[in-house]
């Protein structure tokens, strides 16, 4: 029986304006909301450095080429850089050729930034296409963090599931790609960001302390029910980086430390779990 370990991965989607542009929101005010991510990134990096916490940043190629100094600061802080497309376009809306070209372009930007290729991938808007898995395997990725088939236990991604209305799912075989599962309720965006689109409104703007209490309860349940596992939180610098949220987040991090959380990059956590939970 392995020693009890409760690994926490703090992950950041460093989208800046890319998510707004991909949705056609290119007037000055929505673009400025994304631009605030550079301000937020400095606050987050400072907090992580103060507690010597490693983390993973999923960075679109757009961000790397638009804000190279901000991205270099992430690398200098010792944090992992993960793949998050180039233009933050949902893969399910792309052709195979478009998705592959975007993936390759983003990979090249990451190599220029870090000197190495990314081993982890997170799809924009957590929306994989029918082609994404094959592309990730083709280009040698080791893990994905876009799906929700688990919470504390990463698992091998299957290939070739057959889904047809009126019939049971026919599951395909597992692959070498490991899923590091995520969840919308452990993502800051739906809790905090006010969105008004032609067909939908996300009210957001919840109390930061209420959300952080909920996130802390998730860790406590994780600790109570598992001997070994990995829990991933997802955040966006332009969302989390606002003052009151940073204050609540700092308290959350300090509580995780007191509760015995072991912080790792997602690449480190992937290695820690091999042979134990997958």
TrEMBL record:
InterPro entries: Glyco_hydro/deAcase_b/a-brl, NODB_dom, PgdA-like. This is Polysaccharide deacetylase. One of its GO terms (molecular function) is hydrolase activity, acting on carbon-nitrogen (but not peptide) bonds. GO terms for biological process: carbohydrate metabolic process. It comes from the Bacteria. Residues 28-264 form the NodB homology domain. PROSITE patterns: NODB. It holds the Pfam family Polysacc_deac_1.
